[in-house]
Design brief:
Number of strands: 5
Number of helices: 19
Structural class: alpha+beta
Distance between the termini: 44 Å
Strand order of the largest sheet: 3-2-4-5
Number of domains: 2
Shape: globular
CATH topology of the largest domain: 2-methylcitrate dehydratase PrpD
Helix content: 40-55%
Order of helices and strands: HHHEHHHHHHHHHEHHHHEEEHHH
Length: 415
């Protein structure tokens, strides 16, 4: 699909109507379980509870903290809480978290319209695909200048998800995307604050509101994305050529409760005995040197951004998939502090952002997060992660998804 002044909107409309292939749909079902577990755990962590408690509107939708909420409000709260721990899925094609915007929007509209869970999953999937496509269309400059793709591209994905479930016409969907273009926002300056997960919630709410307003007859600019004063031109978008393709099959799920930049290195040494190693050299893409290479973290949060410390944790058989493991006590553990001095981190621009090469006493171990993960292995690891986050409820959620039971699925979200 060749790009022109209207082609990005046409591409998103194509996603809104597309029939997803079964293999990508299967990955989206796993992402739904992963999203639910992250959101329940994010609510239980408690930091956002006073904020969520202040939102008291009544309606047909479910939030992680209660049932019977307003539709747009549920999308806002669920998007925020599911990103609160920063443990949700990531797509590195555009560096965004697709599920935390698309799923809350799809769930809220599905509950309001009485859609099945299967239809909700398909809507979330095409929404996630649309967000990735917009992210690619905007390009890396959009992200590097300071915009948060989860928030900006994610809002358009949420709009596509909501528009599909509302069965909007092409004209109505185009107006919804145009309305989204004047609302979508989110800055990387919020990273490290509660504003980062809020970005995801705002994207989900924007998608719901834009679709509902378009359904009610509100109109917008003819092409809110690609016209001369549209979203792309005013937000450092490159207007890249993005063909229709299914990309969610390559989504990356987090199996370590730390910065995603550390995951390739941890996966590279997953089956390596590190404790007795005397010299460990991590080769990584230069981008990560300023993101997750804290040399001597002294807090649990800092440890989540330190190659040296997470490898020390792995060497001492500490579960880097356990959020609770990243504590201030862990960061100050004398054994870990001493061991991490064996680790040297080096930038290597021959590697992609998804790759790492770890040399342990001269022996090379490498991993590429882009390498396809067999579905059964991905399923087993997501199930284990979900159980670690929410206990036995994870198996009940997985069963509700398998049974296409939206009512039961929504009931299991409230903790």
């Amino acid at each position: 699909m060749k790009q022109g002044s209207l082609d990005i909107t046409a591409l998103l409309l194509a996603y809104a109507q597309a029939d997803p292939p079964e293999d990508v749909r299967a990955v989206m079902r796993l992402s739904l379980l992963d999203w639910a577990a992250c959101g329940i755990a994010g609510h239980r962590e408690g930091a956002f509870r006073p904020w969520a408690d202040a939102l008291t509107g009544q309606g047909p939708a479910t939030r992680f903290d209660r049932a019977g909420a307003m539709v747009a409000e549920a999308a806002l709260v669920n998007g925020t809480l599911s990103h609160a721990l920063d443990y949700d899925d990531t797509h590195f094609a555009h560096i965004g978290h697709p599920s935390v915007a698309a799923v809350p929007a799809a769930l809220a509209i599905a509950e309001a319209t009485g859609a099945s869970l299967a239809h909700m999953i398909d809507a979330a999937l095409v929404g996630a695909e649309a967000s990735i496509a917009v992210g690619l269309w905007l390009g890396r400059d959009h992200y590097e200048i300071g915009f948060h793709q989860t928030a900006t591209a994610g809002a358009f994905g949420a709009t596509v998800a909501a528009s599909r479930l509302l069965a909007l016409s092409d004209d109505q969907s185009a107006h919804a995307l145009g309305l989204c273009s004047t609302m979508a926002s989110g800055l990387k300056s919020q990273f490290g604050t509660m504003g980062k997960p809020l970005n995801a919630g705002l994207a989900a709410r924007t998608g719901v509101e834009a679709a509902l307003w378009a359904q009610a007859g509100m109109t917008s600019a003819a092409d809110g994305l690609a016209e001369p004063l549209g979203f792309g031109a005013t937000h450092h978008g490159a207007g890249a050529d993005v063909p229709f393709a299914w990309r969610m099959g390559a989504v990356s799920h987090k199996f370590h409760a730390c910065c995603h930049g550390l995951h390739a290195a941890l996966e590279a040494v997953r089956d390596v005995e590190l404790r007795a190693a005397t010299a460990v050299v991590v080769h990584t893409h230069p981008r990560w040197m300023s993101v997750c290479n804290q040399m001597s973290p002294f807090t649990g949060l800092g440890a989540k951004f330190s190659y040296r410390h997470v490898l020390a944790m792995a060497a001492h058989d500490q579960d880097t998939g356990n959020i609770a493991a990243f504590s201030d006590d862990c960061a100050a553990d004398p054994a870990l502090v001493a061991w991490r001095d064996r680790v040297l981190v080096s930038a290597d621009d021959s590697l992609t952002e998804m790759q790492a090469r770890v040399v342990v006493d001269g022996v090379v171990h490498a991993h590429d997060l882009d390498a396809p993960l067999p579905l059964d292995m991905r399923q087993a690891r997501i199930a284990a992660k979900a159980r670690a986050l929410v206990g036995a409820r994870a198996d009940e959620i997985a069963q509700a998804i398998a049974d296409d039971d939206l009512t039961r699925f929504a009931q299991l979200l409230t903790s």
